[in-house]
Amino acid sequence: MDLRFTDAQPTAEERRVVERATGIPDSESHDRVRTDSNLRIFRTGRRSVVNRRHLLLPALETVQSEIGWVSEGALMHICRVLSVPPAEAWGVATFYSLISVDPSPPQVWHICDDIVCRRQGALDLIDRFESGELQPPDSRWAPSPCLGQCDRTPAAYIQRAGKDDMVVVGPDTARLNGLSPDRHSPNGRPQPPPIPQFGQPHLRLLRRVGAVDPGSIDSYLAAGGYQALEAAVRMGRARVVAEVKASGLRGRGGAAFPAWIKWETVANSPEPVRYLICNADESEPGTFKDRVLMEDDPFSVVEAMTITGFAIGARRGYLYIRGEYPLATKRLSRALQEARRQGLLGEDADTGVDFDIEIRRGQGAYICGEETALMNSIEGLRGEPRNKPPFPTVSGLFGKPTVINNVETLCNVLDIVTEGGDAFAQLGTAQSTGPKLFCLSGAVKRPGVYEVEFGATLGELIDLAGGLPDGLHLRAVLLGGAAGSFVLPDLLSMPLTFEAASEAGVSLGSGVIMPFDQHTDFGDILTRIAEFFRDETCGQCVPCRVGTVRLEEALARLRRQPRPGDKDLIAEIDLAMRDASICGLGHTAAIALRSALDLGLL
Amino acid sequence: MDDAEVVILWGSNARAAHPIFFHRVIRAVRRGAQLFCVDPRRSESAEWADLWLGIDVGSDIALSNAMAREILSEGLENRRFIERSTLNFDEYARSVEKWTLERGERVTGVPAHAIRTLAHTYARADRAQLCWTLGITEHHNATDNVLALINLALLCGHVGRYGSGLVPLRGQNNVQGGGDMGAIPNKLPGFQDVENDELRAKFEKVWGASIPPRKGRHLTLMFEAMEEGHLRGLYVIGENPADSEADVQRARHLMEGLDFMVVQDIFLTRTAQMADVVLPAAADWCEAEGTVTSSERRVQRVRPALRPPGEARTDSSIISHLAAALGHGWGQPTAEEVWNELRSLSPMHGGMSYRRLEENGGLQWPCLDEDDPGELFLHSRLWANPPVGPLAPFHVVEWAPPVDSLTADYPIRLTTGRHLDSYNTGVQSGSTASPLRFGGTLDISPEDSAEWEIAEGEEVRVTSRRGSITVPARVDHSLRPGLVFMSVHFPEQADINKLTIEAWDPKSGTAEFKATAVRVEKAPALVG
Amino acid sequence: MDQPDTAKVATEMVQVTIDGASVAVQKGATLLEACQQMGTEIPTLCYLETLTPVNVCRVCVVEVERNRTLVPACSRMAEDGMVVSTDSERVRHSRKMVLEFLGSSVDLSLAEDEVGDWMERYGADPARYGPVSAPAAAGERDARKPGHHHHVNGETAEGVHQPTKVDNTLYIRDYSRCILCYKCVEACGIDAQGTYAIAVAGRGFDARISTEMDLPLGDGACVFCGNCIGVCPTGALMFRSEWELRRADLWDPQAQSVTRTVCSYCGVGCNLELHTQDNRIVKVTSPQDHEVTSGHLCIKGRFGYDYVQNLGDVEQNSIDEVLQAARRRSPK
Known about the structure:
By secondary structure, chain B is α/β, with parallel strands linked by helices. Chain B is built from 20 helices and 21 strands. Strand 1 (41-42) of chain A pairs antiparallel with strand 3 of chain B, so a sheet runs across the interface.
């Protein structure tokens, strides 16, 4: 393409970082690097150019994390190296909230002020930042949507130019000097154990969490790791898919779609190139279960992906993880290295399974958890969802058949393979099989990830978390996250299954259970939710781009001085967003608000 | 074009010169076509190519012959097509025998492996388009250049089929139509030979006048005739030779020596300023009724949207009045009446009534009668079994270097071309304030800029064997050392044709604008 | 390889029911095409025959049985046995809301005429969201950061209003009128011109059409083909001449005529539609259904007409000439 670039040049450092991120030496840049030979002939490598586009996000992300911001020179350099039109690269860079196109100090504090944190110290923390009382050196700060640390509030995620990013949680957050890099050392085990149910015998998904060293493949192997892969190879691809089908496994990301349908469609595709994506962009406010799995049992994620890749005939898997999970990213990267070193992963793996995994870091966009937005994000496009059909199983990543499941869903595959699909299906109920992780946060004594069999009731889960703190009683529960709905205590006896939830007109979503006490200002909570959707909508389709704003405006009026018909207006907006939006974000953005209004919480 | 597998742009920067045609190239590329560009410059078009071959200016025949030899030695030629539909193959095959890839590399400057790649890809493609522009035709051996490309197409059977063909891209909106209408020295309208008595008689009957039985002179011969004193008067319609001719100082000098010159134009061009009489004309495309014919032989109607300014009149009105003044009562026929007369005389236009042109958004000739949809592509007759009409001959063409040779005194090759936002000598495009325009410059490679210590914007003196001009330099990455470029658009600022050579192709009369030998120096500082 | 290829497409048909009537359409046809075949009008904003459907405006949604949500007619393929309603309560509601959302946030006063008709047909009332918010300062919207929250009070309806970008002699960008239909991006990039000078930047309500770094057009990759203007449905992108005439209140569609002719430059044969007022060309378009151009032109074809325009004594530029000509007729 006859692209036009501005004259801005990268610094030597930026040049080095881009080369490292893309693996493309300057001499192969599509820019006019002048050598004797290319003054006479030049292969623009148009086809390889297309193949470079997917390096755009990694390039931007690496420059951001090494330099602290993406300058015009760096952006132009990336464009030259990858043959990306500058306007498009600009469109991508300005899509992600963690990428700064303005000069930025070396540290950027993203302080969570989302639903849980804001009621547990975050607002006070922000006040202290705002007043200048708290002022980490060489830094700026910004409020952030949920960081997936709801069991240890308040939380902040810190981008640190040229150093590892960090997350600080709980009392540490305010103790600026108490930043402990140990939290991020691969072998450091956070204390206390990361899950309240640690050591309990019924645990399946969580059984290794806290029990194995997440940095050691030997530790994982000693705990029975990689037996499932061995079994899968023995069984053969078709059997693995058949077992998953027999297991009745349904997706744990929110849509509860039967996993086997995706797997079978892709496994039987005539297209030889297929992909597996592990959706680790866990960004639904109140959700942190996948983080716990990835941080404390990373090898199981790798093994589960390897089995899935094997079963569907994919040679490459992508693990797309949200940028705000630096520890999980680090441990997974290390797990991949270890697995490759041990011959358990990669093209020449001793297992005979030709499959490798690449990690892609998201850069601050909730919408990229939507499966097709995630694919666009990997491809180096803006994270805008695609219209469906075609579905990813037919035309997914790079237009190829793709299975995409989230971390928890995939981790179930280990037991399905070792114990058989039928055994798995014995757990839970007929339509909701297997174990399920729930994220308890908010007004509970012991917030955390809890594993139960499908069928436990809402009340039982809250009890597992110790019930509400003393003196508080339950006013309502937000079920399923910001995209979920409020329920009243009358549903405490509801079994947490897909079918029971559906019957009650609610959704389990990503497994969020967030109790609220009698002192809750629901107006404040709902406003934060409305802001969240407005900030996180990609802006592509009209119903969602404008609808989220109109919802927020109507809510603002409701809290102060309602106009007649504002509640009806919210219902009208909701209906149009559910019916006409492209993706799930628009479909669900008004659910919490409408449920709160219906239940009289506002 | 959309469905071609291989597209070669040879001596064409269509991205800038034929932008809407290039949309089709992009479309083909998106559908998986491979694009090759043969061009001394790594032009905007070349940036889209799978492979760009930066040949030396004027070495096109060497490249073509080397490709042909490679195709033959690998047995990639289309034997059945050659045997059934072509003539003179054996002689041609012998003539390219000496053009090994190595020799091709020596003469063109392009590595042998790239020549091989192009040859193989072109020959193996099911559907391949070979497109060219002035990079092929503005040479002293223009016709041979074109024949060399035709040879390649015949060799591989890439003519006369859907998606395969030879595509000369026309530079002006009606240069094709001008030829169609007989505005060439040896043809009557519809490419009917002026020296054919029967055809001439047909026209004479309708026109009620006798037509000289000999072909006339083309532009270059006219200047020779002026030089020799045979041609003393000139009627110039819509042409600006005082700016556009190669070795323009000679051309101006000759026109100044004429007894009488009439210029009919919409502008007071440099040529018009030299005229004895100027007839102000209307702009055909927006102030007059008529037809034009595009590169793809598509005849389309133009219509008046504006009233001509002042005393300007349409060309047909001026000519009719002129005829009346010369004693011929043609009246004032409408454009459609003129067109219908043409249709009655030119069989290939026979089916193109105004009504059909309107309904179909134009028609592609030949279109013999009102039921004829016109032809999407020509020469399909060659594929009939047996072929219809004359067989297609190969032509032996020998490479000859540009006339203006590089020597120690003139070591640099200057070539010319167009920019996207400008057009020819700039009389049309120049009045639009284009945000893209940077004016007349001498474009030089970064290496030469460094070696000659000439910075962007610095004034340089460019000298050829014919003249010398001073222009600002511009550093252009599309050039390699030893190759410099000027656009043709700014004769006022950069009178490039003071430099160019009037060496011309004896068959077509085209001058060798594309290859001038120059030296480049820092301009002497102006002393106030 | 002996004979000329003939491209033949097998025409498999599928049967769909639209508003109770059955229709057979070619496999691969969209619901929109099926509706057009039946003469059923479907409103569209971001759809254009010559561009890849992006299905973002959602005004073309229809109801398909057994689909949880409505589907965009412009891009959804017709499938055998589909039962489609194009005017159900749900369809009417979503269309109304989409039109209200746009009408309450964007200046639609120069949008294609049908938009007003649709507003009426679907009972859209953009005013019910309150007065539109004050225009943003120049460049403010372009500087907005993804995820950064702009607080609202609910008294006004957030809009995209902002000053017009006037940074070159050929055309202007008035993003107060931009509905973000992506047409200009597609025409500039993948679907025609291949220049990629503009793209969508930012996110959410702050998403906008932008050059890289929000540079003025002439400083970026733009080659001024004007194909973005050619496809803009709302007047957000406009010829400088039209904009100046409108600004001077001299734009007079009644006094205009459109003449189809052929471009005077290269030999490709692009058809032009010359829009003239007061014997001056005020804008140039190309017919979308013209085989050669598909409605797209280059800088010469679209803007290179000044040489038949600089006719009077005005020295500056042809826009002044055009304005003068218009003023002579209408002494407003």
